[in-house]
Each structure stands twice: as C-alpha cells, then as structure tokens.
Amino acid sequence: MATTPRSGGSSSGAAQRPNGTSQNKSCQFKLVLLGESAVGKSSLVLRFVKGQFHEYQESTIGAAFLTQTICIEDTVVKFEIWDTAGQERYHSLAPMYYRGAQAAIVVYDIQNQDSFQRAKTWVKELHKQASPNIVIALAGNKADLSNIRVVEFDEAKQYAEENGLLFMETSAKTGMNVNDIFLAIAKKLPKNDNNPGTVIKPNGNESTQTTNNCCK
Length: 216
Description:
Its EC number is 3.6.5.2. With 216 residues, the protein is an alpha/beta fold.
C-alpha cells in the first residue's frame, strides 16, 4: 500500500531484505504542471512537496523545479516536477518543459470557466506535441470554494473521460486530493526497465534524492 509522501531529510524507511539491502527499485519521472495563471499550480506543488499552503502565492516566472517521492508497493517513484508560469507571455516556453515529460497535470480553477477552456487547449497541445504515452491528469483546483463554483464537476469529469484523462477536484488550501492525484499518476506510469525515459536503479544508490521514501 502507498502512503502519504513526506519531504525533507535523506532517503530512509525502505523495506529491507534480511541482509540489509533494499527490496525496492526506484523510478524517476518528469512531470509538468500547466494551466492559466492564478489557478493554483504552485500551491498544489507546495502542498504536495512540503505540506504547506500560502494564502498569497507569488506568480511563477518561467518555471519552478521541485522533487518529491512516493512509494507504490515495491517501487519508489521520484517525480521531477516542473511548475510552469501561466501568463500568456510564457506560453512559448512551455514546450521546453513538457518535452520528454512522462506526466502532466493540467490545472483549472473551478470558479473560472475561462481557465477550464484554457485547460482544454493545453490538453489538445499535449496530445499533439508531447510524448505519445504521456499520462495527463486534469485537476479542478480550489474545491474548497465549491459553493461558488462555475465549472460543474460532471462537466469536467465527462470531458476527462472523453479525452482519456485522470480527473480529480483538488484543494491546495485543505489538501483535498492533492497527494491522491500524484499517486494516481504514479500508478499509471510504467515502472519497468523497458520504459524509455524511466531511470531505474537500486534504491540505496539514489544519492541525490532529498526526500524521504514513504515505504514501510
């Protein structure tokens, strides 16, 4: 069973064989967040990586890079996360970040219909230009404000099903479904030696990893 990711410190807690060596393998995936400005992309990443939420989050310039690991059964999945800027002037830079990505989260604000339409545009772009096997998740953020929503859950869910997307409504503020959406992505990603772009190595050799494994 997978558990909640934890950040900070060195790698620890992986299941061990009797001789002290790790049973776990480690996979590394590039994940990009896309969406209009102010939909909460940076807040989602901050909640996932550090378990924090800031009411006033500065706009991302270009892109920000963070890492986090989660564990699925015998595999430690390390996400290399690129949080892209949503402002139109940075759109031309987006392909540089989603090129070669194995996963993407397209984020919209459930209070903002325009951001939902913009999310659809990002999905189309990913289908045309990103890796053919990319796992795409659609996140309807700010679910804590569902009483003043504009984008209905069923509308977004139907769109996601029609386009082969994972879908969840999330709240970076409360933490609702934030870890779950990353976990769902990790479960869909291929974790084997034949997957191009996946770095697999013995867990104990991941010397650059800066987040705790969540395996027990």
